[in-house]
Amino acid sequence: MTLEHLNHPHSKERLDETINDIHEALGAPDFNEEDREAVRESLAYFEARRDRFMAAAGQTIKSAELAA
Prior knowledge:
There is one protein chain. The chain has one domain (3-67). Helix content is 85%, strand content 0%. It is built from 3 helices and no strands. Helix 2 (9-26) packs antiparallel against helix 3. It is elongated, with a radius of gyration of 16 Å.
């Protein structure tokens, strides 16, 4: 993964959009509790993925600044 890739705004935006879509799905009236649990699991996965992405981006930027 390159510094340019980590700083690309679309990557974080896509993760944020996915998370927002999942939040909206949780409010859908036609979901039963089993469906909601599956959606919650997806939400946790994507939130963790976004957190790891942001941590990696911050670490890469810090390393690049120290190298400069």
